[in-house]
């Protein structure tokens, strides 16, 4: 696919392929072992429930996953017994259970995020008066929200931990387009599918990418969410690749040019402080 607009990109530093059968650690090859089919099927069931817009019957889960109906039913019943899946007797439907939230909290607790980065996020949010969100960069160029703090605005309509952000939309999407190593073809192909309140023309979007690279942060003044101004900065690992994206947001009427400059400066300083700390985190 060719693109009319030229986007300069730098190759993304190679990351380990988690689907591979082995990976190198400290110069030696570590064998990951043979995948367990039952676990893969179970995860497929959980993902199907997660993606669904409403609770699902066993037959719907089987159709979505490609599993035999009896296999899907047995997996669902096992997960129900263990608390990972909830069952509605009246409708005979299944949904993701509360236990999954407990497991997700365990990820945050053991990752080091709550000890290393969250205190800094609180400090930043209070100092400049914004809501601050931290997202993990995925190999698919999606962003997964890890945490958010601050009372800049009512956040429940915009943020929920574990939620994936659409590719390349808003301030965080500009950071991804500018620093993730995504190809121009991928950016243009995905751009038409992104979510915006007011989507700028792609030519203008390309200009914003270049501006983001130049000044080191991205700005979205109400195009992604009506009435909401967002600023985003990249956080790189010491090895070079983009690992996290930090986004600050508040109502646009509070975000004057002076305020935007103040917030951006504080966020860039935050990113500089946090980059050396990423080695202490376990976010894979």
Automatic annotation (TrEMBL):
<dbReference type="Pfam" id="PF01614">
    <property type="entry name" value="IclR_C"/>
</dbReference>
<feature type="region of interest" description="Disordered">
    <location>
        <begin position="1"/>
        <end position="29"/>
    </location>
</feature>
<feature type="compositionally biased region" description="Acidic residues">
    <location>
        <begin position="1"/>
        <end position="11"/>
    </location>
</feature>
<feature type="domain" description="HTH iclR-type">
    <location>
        <begin position="36"/>
        <end position="98"/>
    </location>
</feature>
<dbReference type="InterPro" id="IPR029016">
    <property type="entry name" value="GAF-like_dom_sf"/>
</dbReference>
<keyword id="KW-0805">Transcription regulation</keyword>
<dbReference type="Pfam" id="PF09339">
    <property type="entry name" value="HTH_IclR"/>
</dbReference>
<dbReference type="GO" id="GO:0003700">
    <property type="term" value="F:DNA-binding transcription factor activity"/>
</dbReference>
<dbReference type="GO" id="GO:0045892">
    <property type="term" value="P:negative regulation of DNA-templated transcription"/>
</dbReference>
<dbReference type="InterPro" id="IPR005471">
    <property type="entry name" value="Tscrpt_reg_IclR_N"/>
</dbReference>
<protein>
    <recommendedName>
        <fullName>IclR family transcriptional regulator</fullName>
    </recommendedName>
</protein>
<keyword id="KW-0238">DNA-binding</keyword>
<feature type="domain" description="IclR-ED">
    <location>
        <begin position="99"/>
        <end position="280"/>
    </location>
</feature>
<dbReference type="InterPro" id="IPR050707">
    <property type="entry name" value="HTH_MetabolicPath_Reg"/>
</dbReference>
<keyword id="KW-0804">Transcription</keyword>
<dbReference type="GO" id="GO:0003677">
    <property type="term" value="F:DNA binding"/>
</dbReference>
<feature type="compositionally biased region" description="Basic and acidic residues">
    <location>
        <begin position="12"/>
        <end position="27"/>
    </location>
</feature>
<dbReference type="InterPro" id="IPR036388">
    <property type="entry name" value="WH-like_DNA-bd_sf"/>
</dbReference>
<dbReference type="InterPro" id="IPR036390">
    <property type="entry name" value="WH_DNA-bd_sf"/>
</dbReference>
<dbReference type="InterPro" id="IPR014757">
    <property type="entry name" value="Tscrpt_reg_IclR_C"/>
</dbReference>
